[in-house]
Design goal:
The structure holds 2 protein chains of 2 kinds. Chain A contains 10 helices and 15 strands. Chain A is an alpha/beta fold. Chain A folds into 2 domains: about 45-190 and about 265-405 and about 415-445, Alkaline Phosphatase, subunit A (3-Layer(aba) Sandwich); about 195-260. Among the domains of chain B are: about 200-365, Jelly Rolls (Sandwich), CATH 2.60.120; about 760-815. In chain B, strands 3, 6, 8, 11 and 13 form a 5-stranded antiparallel sheet that branches. Chain B has a 4-stranded antiparallel sheet with strand order 7-12-9-10, with no helix packed on it. Chain B has a 3-stranded antiparallel sheet with strand order 1-17-18, with no helix packed on it. Classes of the chains: A alpha/beta, B alpha+beta.
Chain lengths: ~450, ~800
């Protein structure tokens, strides 16, 4: 235990969270042989990105409903949260509000087509809808081996959707969408579900699985040669999917000796569906929290709402408001910022609850939040407007972030590239120092 | 007084997709640059962005006009946007006239659409496609002979705008998805293949309707006369969690005059209140038996669907078998599925004499109910039953050969059998039984591409080739049944006779007559007409306090049944534009204000001559689906017609559309049409919206729940937060002018216009929609001649859908790759 300080002991943990999750014993408190092999003394560095659709309430500075705006109000050197982000007040030392960033490539495409590139910065010009790798996958490629799951992609709408209406935030190195999981039970089973049988049986099962996949692969490769060229391109998605599972099986084999974390599901509402949006979002955040806390993965994306996501679009109705889309379009009407602001309050509160739980979970000398960067935002500001993304950046204090700031990067009407922020996160995580996508620099104001 | 958010009108909401689906119109509207547009760019742009000056680094005169191969498409796109927004030319300079500005915008739009279509084109081949989620589910059900939910864990599918979920170019695949395929295959095989002797059978016989909370209260019995909304219940304390279940209900009906037959639904659950796991067994049945001669109605299902729940100990001991009367005439008294438990308890002993009852005499439960052992689904795969021959490997080879023939929808090649066979031999030692190992080998086949995809090998260098009998059989089967070919179709393909003589047409006819073709009706109408929109709209009770939510599923069924009626009775597809009948049940008819319909099933109902209900565009599914739940949504309705009925969707709005100006005097009190007009005051918006709005305005006669109206109700906030409101009734404006100058006044005149002026556009749209569904791809330029040909045939053959399907299936489009 001595050399791995993030393996908290049970008592500290229970005292810290104040959350009755009823965990008998956490496996992250043991010493996985794996983690020991890699970067023995370093704290884990994690990241998590969340996207919601159609922008936020952004009234002009002199608007009578300014206090329902997302962005804080500047007061001298300082800033004051409006009622929208008020719930982040207790987390000031963990939170930075950022404005004036956007993807230059996104400014040229339709207002609602930008969710796809939120984490990629891909260039969709000329009806070329081929995406590029998302920043979380860049991170997963580097740190993914340290955990049972290299990364986790979640989505309220589920699946992949289609270009310009993607329902996931994560894209592979070749730009293939990674389907977002939307069913809490399925996510839980994946992360913490236990396969039956003895260790020997499990090992044998995995060997069988791997042999099965080998044969499927052999057979499928030979089929490829008989296909036409355009078919082959599509068919390669299948081949890389087989490869994906092969890797997953190989990883399971490596992790076989380390039991999955024993997490008690009884406090989680795993049956919840998107029909109860508030409870659903809470459960999704809980699952993210558990995944991070048990160090099951260090990279998570959550498409809380996709642009044109028919399911998540309804979420705001739970507050008696219109759909998210309607709120965005109605923002300019009397009372419009108030209504959109009310929905934004709800989004912020959910985030704050998630952040607070992480802040309350001790890890090493600090908290889980200190070792986890959290980015939340949307790729519109006002309706159809692809500038000035409303963004919250939180956590990661152990990676040098200083917080308690409200930064605006817009200069002379020009935004800075959003990829600069994504790069800064990768850089501080020790993943990359060579830029990401179309980044032109890093945002040094965030740290140091 | 301020308008509340409920009035917010979403001008551009419907126009936000990034795809253009209508290649036909994109190509038709293209025109030469030189003719006129070039001069305009020269006149208004070159002085600052030309040979002498390149402000902002932009030089227009040298921009590449080839959007397909050139590199300047995106610069043109930027110019398109600044032209629409009126940002260029700068105010102080000479301004183009509105017409001139529009010419430039239109030219760029058409070129962009053209380039998009060209880039997506595959030369008419489409691209290899996998089974959709629902096709996968149907296929495994048929292949294994067990009805389970195989697709539950698979990610949801999407469709391209105006297209279908089976479009190969859109469908994705991922490692995770493949894992869930494997999991589903194993689950199915575990149920399909059995080991050992026949499991113990459980039997229960109940004649008393017990209280639903019998575990908490002393047993007391209720009447066996079940009125609509109520149920007969019987409970058994010991029950199995797997295997097929049969439930037989002996019952008769009591029907008051003027009422239809009561409808029976049987459910199993471990809790009476929530019906966890909520399982319906079999399908609903209308009860026609009389007291003198009661009938035993049989319901069959599979307990494995709920195995996990049934096998888990519960706080609510015992298994509940519930027989519901789900007759529903739409009246308020009826509230299905125990929403008001106490109220129902009270009513249970006092059936309403004005409603049709079911009198339940007895309920019999048998499970696992195997007619033979081993069951048929076992011997279909392991054809020697429980016996395993000494030469296991040879048997496995046989088994695999037979199985793969069905799974791959054609006989497997030697190599295709060898791979799983080798696997079987390799792992056999790890399994106690032959069955265990063969399951693993069969599962391997079920994640193979030959099963998951419709594989049609081809060599592009050799050009298009004729499809084999097997490939045609698969295309046909997935087109009309959404599942694998049945034995008859497979055998005729095996004999090499499917494409001979009239065989293909005969098979087609047989398949359309098979009940499985209902899947085509459901899947096609659902996607063509976006019936899912109904589920995305929540009707606001503040606006429609008397609306009965139960009418919503009926609206979907109305449209499905309407399509089926036309397909199955050789009626003209022009009925989609206007008709003198619709398909209604008592509940929906009541909602529409049409009398004389009784019963729960959808039935052909003649419409009065002055009715506004004929055709698709005034059915509830369209009107409600394209509403906000509070008011109509004329733009959504318009786009729906353009996209789905005419296959001519409007282009998406430009980036950065300016907000509406709600501060315009009197805005809140204006009819929607005038509110739209405010938006249209901006010339650049007007140019698109004058082509869109006239399709939606005439339908302003119908409110958000699809009913005729002369005023539209709004709630006006008295304060900004919208906490206090008062009603306001805005007048409704239903007349508008089409781009071609035709004056439209109300829904009927819109239908007349469609029938008279846009009939051939509709015919063509019908061809494009059906063909792209049948082919599993978006149609493109190279298909143009075939579409022309098919449209002509469709018109000649009296717009009959079955004939159109036949034309498509017999066309080169369908038979070659």
């Amino acid at each position: 235990m001595a050399d791995k300080s993030w393996h908290m002991d049970r008592r500290t943990f229970l005292k810290g969270t104040g959350v009755a999750l009823g965990l008998p014993f956490l496996d992250c408190m043991r010493s996985p042989a794996h983690a020991a092999k890699s970067s023995a003394l370093a704290m884990p560095k994690r990241m998590c990105a969340i996207h919601f659709p159609y922008g936020a309430s952004v009234p002009s500075e002199d608007h009578e409903d300014r206090d329902w705006g997302w962005f804080p109000v500047r007061e001298g050197d300082n800033f004051r949260y409006t009622r929208v982000l008020k719930s982040l007040e207790p987390l000031r030392d963990h939170t930075t509000v950022i404005g004036g960033l956007s993807h230059p490539t996104g400014r040229k495409i339709g207002g609602h087509d930008t969710g796809d590139i939120f984490l990629t910065g891909a260039d969709f010009s000329g009806a070329n809808f081929k995406n590029t790798i998302s920043f979380d996958q860049v991170a997963a490629a580097k740190v993914g081996d340290n955990t049972r799951f290299a990364s986790l992609a979640l989505s309220s709408d589920g699946g992949i959707g289609m270009p310009t209406r993607s329902k996931t935030l994560s894209f592979t190195a070749s730009g293939q969408p990674i389907p977002g999981l939307d069913k809490p039970q399925l996510i839980f089973d994946r992360l913490f579900g236990v396969d039956g049988g003895t260790l020997a049986e499990q090992r044998r099962r995995l060997e069988t699985e791997s042999s099965l996949l080998d044969r499927v692969m052999d057979q499928s490769r030979s089929l490829r040669n008989r296909l036409g060229k355009s078919d082959q391109e599509k068919y390669d998605e299948y081949l890389s999917s087989v490869r994906d599972i092969e890797q997953r099986v190989a990883r399971s084999q490596q992790w076989l000796d380390i039991p999955k974390p024993d997490v008690d599901a009884s406090e989680l509402n795993l049956e919840v569906t998107q029909e109860a949006p508030l409870e659903y979002m809470e459960t999704m955040y809980d699952l993210m929290y558990l995944a991070l806390r048990t160090d099951s993965t260090r990279v998570i994306t959550y498409m809380l709402g996709a642009m044109n996501g028919s399911t998540s679009n309804q979420f705001s109705k739970a507050l008696g408001l219109g759909t998210q889309h309607e709120l965005a379009h109605g923002a300019g009407k009397p009372g419009g910022f108030i209504r959109q602001g009310k929905w934004n309050v709800c989004l912020a509160e959910n985030l704050a609850r998630f952040l607070q739980k992480m802040a309350d979970t001790p890890e090493g000398d600090g908290s889980l939040l200190d070792n986890t960067m959290v980015l939340m935002g949307t790729s519109n500001s006002r309706t159809h407007n692809n500038h000035n993304y409303p963004l919250i950046f939180a956590g990661g204090n152990n990676m040098g972030f200083k917080h308690n700031q409200y930064l605006t990067y817009e200069k002379n009407g020009e935004d800075m590239p959003m990829s600069d922020l994504l790069f800064t996160m990768l850089n501080r995580m020790g993943i990359s120092n060579a830029g990401f996508s179309d980044s032109v620099g890093d945002l040094s104001e965030l740290y140091g | 007084m301020l308008p509340s958010y409920r009035n917010s009108l979403l001008i551009c909401s419907a126009l936000t997709a990034g795809y253009f689906s209508s290649f036909v119109h994109a190509s038709a509207e293209r025109f030469a640059y030189e003719e006129s547009v070039g001069l305009l760019f020269e006149k208004y742009c070159y002085s600052c962005h030309g040979p002498d000056e390149q402000e902002n680094g932009l030089r227009v005169d040298t921009l590449d006009r080839d959007f397909v191969n050139g590199r300047d498409g995106e610069t043109w796109h930027d110019m398109h946007d600044v032209l629409i927004l009126g940002d260029m030319p700068p105010e102080e300079d000479d301004q183009p006239s509105n017409r001139e500005r529009q010419l430039m915008i239109d030219w760029i739009t058409a070129e962009l659409e053209h380039a998009t279509a060209v880039k997506r084109a595959t030369g008419g081949r489409g691209v290899i496609r996998r089974l959709t989620r629902y096709e996968y589910n149907n296929t495994l059900t048929d292949l294994l002979g067990i009805e389970l939910d195989y697709s539950n864990d698979l990610p949801p599918e999407t469709a391209p705008r105006g297209g279908f979920q089976n479009d190969g170019s859109i469908m994705g695949m991922s490692g995770m998805q493949l894992e869930y395929y494997l999991k589903a295959a194993r689950m199915g095989l575990d149920v399909a293949l059995v080991d050992g002797s026949q499991p113990k059978q459980f039997y229960h016989y109940g004649t008393c309707n017990v209280d639903r909370r019998a575990d908490r209260q002393p047993e007391k019995t209720h009447t066996n006369k079940i009125q609509p909304g109520n149920a007969f219940m019987t409970r058994m304390m010991e029950y199995p969690a797997t295997g097929p279940v049969t439930i037989r209900v002996k019952a008769h009906a009591v029907m008051p005059d003027g009422k239809g037959p009561p409808r029976m639904r049987v459910r199993l659950g471990i809790r009476a209140d929530t019906y966890i796991p909520g399982g319906q067994i079999g399908t609903d049945i209308d009860i026609l038996a009389t007291e003198e001669s009661p009938v035993v109605y049989e319901f069959k299902g599979q307990l494995d669907r709920f195995e996990k729940v049934l096998a888990t100990p519960s706080n609510f001991p015992g298994l509940m078998i519930t027989v519901h009367n789900v007759y529903d005439d739409g009246s308020d008294k009826i509230n299905i599925l125990d929403l008001r438990l106490n109220e129902q308890e009270r009513q249970l002993n006092n059936p309403d004499p004005c409603q049709p009852w079911i009198v339940v005499e007895s309920v019999e439960f048998v499970a696992p109910d195997y007619a033979v052992w081993p069951p048929e689904h076992h011997t279909r795969i392991l054809f020697k039953g429980l016996e395993v021959p000494a030469d296991e490997s040879a048997y496995a080879e046989d088994v695999l050969g037979r199985f793969l023939r069905r799974a791959y929808r054609r006989p497997a090649t030697v190599e295709e059998i060898q791979e799983p066979l080798k696997f079987f031999n390799e792992i056999r030692g790890e399994y106690d039984s032959f069955t265990g190992a063969i399951k693993a080998a069969l599962a391997m086949a079920l994640i193979s591409p030959q099963f998951l995809y419709l594989v049609e090998p081809s060599d592009e260098n050799l050009g298009a080739r004729k499809l084999t009998d097997f490939e045609v059989a698969s295309r046909l089967s997935y087109f009309l049944w959404s599942t694998m070919p049945d034995e008859e179709l497979l055998q005729i393909a095996e004999k090499g006779r499917l494409l001979k003589g009239r065989n293909l047409a005969k098979q087609l006819q047989r398949m359309l007559e098979d009940p499985k073709s209902n899947r085509f009706v459901q899947r096609f109408t659902e996607q063509w007409l976006d019936l899912g929109a109904l589920d995305r709209v929540a009707i606001n009770p503040q606006f429609y306090p008397n609306f009965n939510e139960r009418a919503i599923p009926d609206m979907r069924r109305e449209t499905e049944a309407f399509f089926a009626e036309i397909l199955r009775n050789d009626l003209s597809a022009l009925n989609f534009l206007d008709s003198d009948f619709s398909m209604l049940n008592e509940r929906l008819a009541k909602h529409y204000g049409i009398s004389g319909v009784v019963g729960t099933s959808m039935q052909r109902t003649p419409l009065p001559s002055d009715s506004k209900r004929g055709g698709l565009i005034t059915q509830g599914s369209m009107l409600v689906g394209n509403s906000t739940g509070e008011d109509s949504h004329p733009i959504d309705r318009a786009v729906w017609i353009m996209e789905r009925i005419l296959d001519d969707p409007p282009p998406p709005p430009p980036a950065m559309v300016p907000d509406l100006d709600p501060e315009a005097p009197g805005f809140a009190e204006m009819p929607l049409k005038e509110q739209l007009a405010v938006h249209r005051q901006q010339e650049s918006c007007n140019n698109c919206h004058k082509k869109i709005d006239p399709w939606g305005i005439p339908l302003e006669e119908f409110d958000a729940i699809g009913l005729y109206r002369t005023k539209s109700m709004r709630l006006m906030s008295k304060d900004k937060g919208g906490a206090r409101t008062e009603e306001f009734h805005a007048p409704v404006e239903v007349s508008d002018v089409m781009p071609d100058g035709a004056e439209i006044n109300g829904a009927q005149s819109l239908k007349d216009y469609l029938l008279e002026t846009r009939r051939s556009d509709f015919a063509r749209a019908m061809v494009v929609k059906l063909a792209s569904y049948g082919l599993g791809r978006t149609l493109e330029f190279s298909d143009e001649p075939t579409i022309e040909e098919l449209t002509t045939q469709f018109e000649k053959r009296d717009y009959r859908l079955d004939k159109l399907i036949e034309s498509i299936v017999l066309s080169e489009l369908f038979l070659t790759r």
